Amino acid sequence: MDKARIKDTDEIVMADTILDLYPNYNELEFVCIDEICSVRMSPTCIKKTERKKPHFKKYRNREHIETCEYATLSKLYQKGGNEKLNKIEISKIGYPSVFILNDDEEDFKKITKARLDSKDEGVTGRGNAISKVYEFDDENVKFDRKNRVQSIDRIVNWYLGFPHNRDVEIEINSIKIAYRYFFKQIKYFTDPIKLQNERIFYGKLILSKTNKNVFDKYTDCVYFNLLAYKDESKKKSNYSVKIDKKLISKHSLSRLKNKYDKLFDKAFTELEEGTNEPNFGLYVFVYGTIDENNDTIMNVKQNHITFRYDEVRKTIIEV
Question: pTM, whole model, 2 decimals?
Answer without folding.
Answer: 0.79
